[in-house]
Amino acid sequence: MNKTVKNVAHYMTLPYTTVLRRDEDDDVIARVEELPGCVAHGSDEAEAIGNLREMQKLWLEDCVETGQVVPVPAPESVLPSGKWVQRVPRSLHRRLAQMAKHENVSLNQLVTSLLAQAAGGDVWEKPAGSLPERHFAREAAPPRLHGLSRKNGERRR
Known about the structure:
The protein is of the alpha+beta class.
C-alpha cells in the first residue's frame, strides 16, 4: 500500500495539462488531457479544479493498483522560431503548429488550408458566450474553431 501511495504521490506532482471549458449549463468542465476519462465538473473554475484533483488521484490510484502504465506528460517542446514565409507572433506560430500536429498535417498545409477557406468566404470564430479552453501546466492549445458558411445564410457548427 505504501508503494502505491508513493507512486500516486509522484504522479500527482507531474505537470499534467488541465483544460477548462464551460458547458451549455454554464458549469465548468475540467479534464486532464493526458489521462483519458479524467474529467470533473464544478460551478466555477476553482470548484472544477478541486474536483478534478480528487478525480485525478482516484484515476492514478486505480491505474497503479491494476498495474497499468500511467501516462506521463510529454516534455514541453521548444517554441517554434515564429517564421515560415511571413513573420508572426511566436504564440500564434505555436498554436498553428499544435493545430497542424492535431490534424496530422504540416504547418504549411494547415496554413494554406486556413487561408484558402478564409479567401473562399468562410469566417472563423469562437462560439459566442463560451469560456475559452484554458490550459494549466503548459501554454494553451489552439481554441476549437467553428466555421460559418454564407451558403443560404446558414451557420455551420
